[in-house]
Amino acid sequence: MRKYVIIGVPGSGKSTQASILAADLDLVQISVGDIFRWNVQNHTKMGAQVRRVMAAGELVGDDLAEAVTAERLAQHDWNYGFVIDGFPRNPRQAEFFLESYDIDGVIHLDMPDSEVRRRVLARRLCANCGVDYNLIQSRPATEGVCDVCGGNLVTREDDTEEALVVRLREYHEKTDPVLDLFRRKEYVATIDATASKDEIQQAIRDKFALPPYEP
Ligand code: ADP
How far apart are CA 49 and CA 34, in angstroms? Predict the structure, then answer.
C-alpha cells in the first residue's frame, strides 16, 4: 500500500504528476479541487455553496473540505493506495489528516511564483472530458477544440489574474506551514517543478524508490 500527498503552488503540475503516478502504480488519484469543481459544474447544493469562494481563489471552509476528503477516502476503493492533491491545505486540515491516515510521504512540487502566472494564465481545460492544455507547451491542434474528444476548451473560473493573486497568497500563508509541519513528521521530497514532465516524474520515482518511469 502506498499513500502520498502531493503539494505545490497552483500550476505546479500536481494533477499531471499525480495522474501518471496513479495510473502506473494502480493508485487512486484524489483531487479535492476536482470534487468541488464537479459539484459546481453539476449544480449541486454543495456546488452552489463553494462556487463564489473558489472563483475568488479563496479556500473553502475546513469543515466542508474535511468532510469531502473523509467521505472520498471512506470509499476504500484504494486497494494499492492513493495520491491526494489539494488536501491538506492548512495546518488544521493537516492535523485532521494525520490523525486518520498514515502516509508514506509528501511530494512537494517546488516552483517560483514568477513561473506560476505564466503557466496558469495559459491553461485551458476541455469542458467535456477534462483534459488539460497549455497554450505555451501543449497546444491543441485546433484552437479551442479538444484533441481527444472535440469538446470546447475553457478557462477555469479561478485561472484569472485576480484569483491567482489570492490563490498564491492563500498558498503561502496557509499551505507553506503545512509543509513545515509535515517536515517534522513525515518524509517530504522537494522536487524542482520547472523541469520537464518526464523528468519530474522520474525524480519522484527516485526519491521514493519507486519503479523507474517509462514514458
Ligand atoms: P490549485 O491548487 O491549482 O489552486 P485546486 O484545483 O487544487 O487548485 O483547488 C481549487 C480550489 O478548490 C481552491 O482554490 C479552493 O477554493 C478549493 N479547495 C480545494 N481543496 C481545498 C481544501 N483542502 N480546503 C479548502 N478549499 C479547497
Answer: 15
